[in-house]
Amino acid sequence: MSSAGKRATLQKRPDEVATMFDEVAPRYDVMNDLLSLGQTRRWRKIVLDAVDAAPGQRVLDLAAGTGTSSEPYADAGVDVVACDFSLGMLRVGKRRRPDIDFIAGDATNLPFADNSFDAVTISFGLRNVNDPKKALSEMLRVAKPGGRIVIAEFSTPTNPLWRTMYIEYLMRALPEVARRASSNPDAYVYLAESIRAWPDQDNLAAWLADAGWGDVTYRNLSGGIVAVHRAHKPAAHDPSHAPGGMLPAKLRRARRTAGY
Ligand SMILES: C[S@@+](CC[C@H](N)C(=O)[O-])C[C@H]1O[C@@H](n2cnc3c(N)ncnc32)[C@H](O)[C@@H]1O
Known about the structure:
Blueprint: H1 3-8, H2 14-24, H3 28-35, H4 39-51, E1 58-62, H5 71-75, E2 79-84, H6 87-96, E3 101-104, E4 117-123, H7 132-142, E5 143-154, H8 160-181, H9 185-197, H10 201-211, E6 214-221, E7 226-232, H11 248-255
Parallel strand pairs: 1-2, 1-4, 2-3, 4-5
Antiparallel strand pairs: 5-7, 6-7
Helix pairs in contact: 8-9, 10-11
This protein binds S-adenosylmethionine (SAM).
């Protein structure tokens, strides 16, 4: 199938997304380093600091893929659960890190009990979930009261010139590099298009607040190419929370410089 044909049918249908990641799994981490020009390592360190998990705490790394985002927690003595719905990605991860608990599960219907994690995190995964708002609600359900969420996701560069250069890279250079280096170049055309279609920093902050998360903040990395959002589950979580628009005060709080 031509890349255009494949893309047209790839409307984030869960089975197609899982198959796509199954196909890229063997070279996923190499391609990540290549296409991010080595930036992913720095971004991951910032996410780890934002999650701020102590040894013995239980952390859910959702859409964990091959477990690259989960490894630093395991190395720090944190009880990390790496959950993903691509069996291909999980298999690569389990082979590399048999000590990590890899669990197959869908972000929109998590196979975990209520209030069971000290922190929940998702790196470069939420954008791929077919119903990301449902995933934010599920993450809230499984987090303990007072627990935190940290999301790392591609976002919108704040400087217009930087934004133009970045979009040029995304739409032209990245698919070209992928065509030469990846077993599934279509996946990287999808990557570029899904990044462009993704909500900006403030809109994602509003989604978090709508899902019931409190104290929403975010920090821009690499000029906003990536944003790290952080929030807490209210200590006395009201499950009947009625979603609504994000209040201006909450939005102001999200915009303030995050302290991580
Ligand atoms: C770009 S990878 C990120 C992997 C890892 N977190 C990292 O930082 O390298 C995105 C992952 O999201 C997973 N994913 C997409 N939709 C999902 C869903 N509904 N439930 C669980 N995992 C999902 C894919 O299978 C894929 O492994």
